[in-house]
Amino acid sequence: MGLMIDGIYRAEDPPPDSADDGTFKRQKATIRNWITRNGSSGFPAEAGRYHLYVAWNCPWAHRSLLARHFKGLDEIGLSVAKPRRTDQGWVFDADGEFSDPLMGVSALHEVYAADAQPYTGRVTVPVLWDKVANRAVSNESADIVRMLNDAFDGPDLAPRDLLDEIDGWNARIYRDVNNGVYRAGFARTQEAYDTAVAEVFAALDEIEAALADHRWLCGDRFTEADLRLFPTLARFDVAYHYAFKCNIRRLMDYPHLWAYAREIYQMPGVAGTVRFDIYKQGYFSPSELRNPLGIVPAGPVLDWDRPHGRG
Ligand SMILES: N[C@@H](CCC(=O)N[C@@H](CS)C(=O)NCC(=O)O)C(=O)O
Questions:
Q1: CB 104 within 8 Å of CB 125
Q2: CATH at residue 19
Q3: In whole angstroms, what is the distance from residue 226 CA to residue 273 CA?
Q4: Whose CA is nearest to atom 19 of ligand 1?
Q5: pLDDT in tens, 240-277
Q6: Count of structural domains, the chain
Q7: Residue tagged active-site, from 119, 182, 242, 260
Q8: 143 Cα nearest atom in ligand 1
């Protein structure tokens, strides 16, 4: 795993993502262009012009895949990196499921290097690429989800009348759930872990209570807030419970949340964005701190196809 400086990739380890107190700090994405309907940003809303670089195991990439799916944007091409990173970071095969049909790169850093704007930072998925301008549009999944929603027709996942509520859930869920599990798993002190894991489960308990009264987080409409919660739920029992020590409860111990997660999973096309086998390979990759031998556990046994029974 490395870092890019002024458009040149260095295979050495980047500085640790933690503060002095052992708390995990995620770096901010810096490529923040925006697709607009009228193209005034330089990135017009023509789906066939864009390509998405993802990895099945990455939850941030997953939400961009879900946005592409719910908006019916199959014209946005896909390149899927291999689940385990190397000293070259995210890598691709020459052909097959984990190859790059667009540029034929062997590592994602080559895509970042192809951007006219010299990049400095971590080489992360997802990346939304503009094939016409030969530029990266964005490497921030929250932006990718919102811009695909706003710039393209199809169901509106962030309707104006619910926007404040959606943004409220998004902020809470990002902090304590989506990134909360990483703060637990990547904590470097007992205190940092204790704080993070308590926040993860406080948030899940709150969501469980909300789902007892509502079908979706914001009431009776499925929104971006639900879309952004799902990738963490899909990985919870197979990965975070064990690999990130988020083991106070399992997803399947929450009756409402577990049924809600299955309902989303069973929506047309969603299962096609989910790869439990690959989550395990990715999260149980060899890691000096968490899993030195890279052994992948066999369980748990989960039944995501069981009827969700939610009205
Ligand atoms: N802010 C980014 C975060 C993306 C991110 O951290 N992706 C991880 C994979 S889950 C990654 O590519 N990490 C590579 C690295 O940090 O070197 C987003 O949400 O799009």
A1: no
A2: 3.40.30.10
A3: 15
A4: 141
A5: 999 999 999 999 999 999 999 999 999 999 999 999 99
A6: 2
A7: 182
A8: 20
